[in-house]
Amino acid sequence: MAASLILAAKAVRTFCYGYLGVFYPIYLVRLGLSPRQLGVAVALPLLASAVFTLAVRRPAQRHGPRAILMALCGLIVVSATTFLLSDHAWAVVLGAMLGNIAVGTGETGPFLTLEQVALSRVVEHERMTRLYSLYNLLGYAAAALGAAALAREFVAPARFFWIFLAGGFLQLALYSRMGDHRRPSHLESSAAPLSPFIKRLAVLFAVDSFAGGFIVQSLVLYWFHARFQIALSTLGWIAFGAQIVSGASYLLAEPASERFGLVETMVFSHLISNMFLIALAFAPTPGLAVALLLARHALSQIDVPTRQTFLMTAVEDHERESAASVTNTSRALAQCAGPALAGWVMQTLALSTPLLIGGGLKAAYDLLLYAAIREHAKSSASISPR
C-alpha cells in the first residue's frame, strides 16, 4: 500500500516536472534573461533543492517521512501560486526554488531522499533493485508524458501552472494516507556518525553531480535550441524521447546487476554513456545529435537503482536517513555550480564546451568510484563489489 502511494505521488510530481523543465529556460529567456543569467536561474533551484534535502534529515528522523513529504507538497502549492500570480523572471525563479523544480532529466532533492528511505523499509533486500527500478521508470515515463504535453506549440503557461497546483494537492492527499515508516530506534541515527566510506561516496557523488550540472536537461535543450534553431514544440518531443529511453533503461538494471554484478553494472554502463555525451558536442547535424543524446540516455540511468540499492544495503537501517540525506545533499549542492558555470562558458567560450566538461568529469567519477568500492571491499567483508 505504502509503495503504491509513493509511486503514484512520484508519477504526479514528475509529470509536472516533465513540462516545467522543458519550458523553464525558454520561458525565462522570453521574460528577458540572458544566457549568463539563465545559468544562474537554472542553478538556483538546484541550490534550493540541496538546502531542502539537508533540512529534512532531522525532521524525518523524528517525525517520519510522511509529515515532511506533506510539508513539501505545501511548498509546491506555494510555488504554483507564485507562477500564476507573477510573470517577472526572478519571481518565476523563486517559484521554481520553492517547488523543487527538476531542471535535469532525473529528480534530485528532498522528495527523492525521503521516498528512497521509505521504499527501502517496505520491501526485502532481494527485491529492492526491482522496486527502485520501477520507481525511477515510472518517474521518467510520467516526465516524458509531461514533456510531450508541450509538443503541439508553446501554449499559455498558466494552463500548466494550474496543473502543477492541482498536482500539489493530489500529492498531499496521497502522502496523507501513507504510514510513517520510521525505524524502530529513531533516535539512534541522530548520534551515529557516518562511516568514512559513506563520506567518501558523498564526495564522489558530488563530483558526478557537479559534472551533471553542466548538462542538466534544461541547458541541453537550450543547446539544441541555440545550435540548431529547434522550435519549442520539437524540443518537447526530444525531451519526451530522452525520458522514454531513460525510463526503459531501468528495466535493464536488475537483470544486468544479476549478470554482471551490482557495482560493475552501476559503473560501466554510466561510463559508456558519457562517451556518447562527449561525442554529442561534435555532432554536425540535429539528427545525429538527437541520436547521440538518445544513445546516452539509453545507458545513463542504469546506475540509479543499482546505486540506490548499494547505498541502502551498505549501511545499517538506522543510518539510512543520514546516508541518503548526506549523499543526496552533496549531489544537489555540487550540481548547483554547474549550470551557472555552463551559462558563462556557453556565452564566453563555445556553446558545446559544457558537454565536454560534463562528460569528461563524469567519466573520471566512474573510474574513481569503481576504485573506491574495490578498495573498500578488500578491507571489509560486509560490502562486496558483487
CA-based shape? globular
From the alpha-carbon coordinates, what is the Rg to the nearest angstrom?
Answer: 20 Å
What is the count of DSSP helices, taking H or I runs of 4+ residues?
A: 18
Q: Tell me about the largest β-sheet.
A: none
The helix fraction, in percent, is over 70%
Order of helices and strands: HHHHHHHHHHHHHHHHHH
| Strand count | 0
Secondary structure class reads mainly alpha
* Domain tally: 1
Strand content: under 5%
Task: Write the CATH fold name.
Answer: Growth Hormone, Chain: A
CATH homology superfamily: MFS general substrate transporter like domains
Question: Characteristics of this structure?
Answer:
mainly alpha, 386 residues, disordered C terminus, single chain
